[in-house]
Specification:
Blueprint (H helix, E strand, L loop, with lengths): L9 E5 L3 H13 L3 E5 L5 H8 L3 E5 L1 E2 L2 E2 H10 L8 E5 L4 H4 L8 E4 L4 H12 L6
């Protein structure tokens, strides 16, 4: 019996657009990842503590927070500093986003290609950085 290592990977997706959140969730579940989706950032700390995600996919523009500030909080917390983060955004591009002190492990502009999303996720989980 072959065990798929993806099925042991927890991914937390924080995206306020429900259609995009549903698509990402379905894609990742079809690839055997365990996925939890949030449409607001307010519950993020509790879910991180409970889930111990292997990766966080984080939208920059959320109704109750700025993904860049959330990334900074993750990087400043000893409990979350090493959790890989893939940032996504419809408004920002990689060039105008990556000037800050805190860098994600990857960035994708929306709309994104499904294969590109999966390649980035697999690469980040394998230890690669795309920023």
């Amino acid at each position: 019996m072959v065990i798929d290592s993806k099925s042991y990977k927890n991914i937390l997706v924080i995206e306020d657009n429900h259609a995009i959140l549903d698509v990402i969730t379905l894609i990742l579940q079809s690839e055997s990842y365990k996925v939890t989706g949030l449409s607001k950032s307010v519950d993020m700390p509790m879910h991180i503590e409970q889930l111990k995600p292997d990766l966080i996919i984080l939208d920059i523009m959320l109704p109750d927070g700025d993904g860049r500030v959330l990334l900074q909080q993750l990087r400043n917390d000893v409990n979350t500093i090493d959790i890989p983060v893939l940032m996504i955004s419809a408004r920002y591009t990689e060039e105008n986003f990556l000037h800050g002190e805190f860098k994600p492990n990857g960035f994708l502009a929306k709309p994104f290609d499904i294969d590109n999303l999966l390649d980035r996720i697999e690469g980040i989980l394998a230890g690669k950085t795309y920023c």
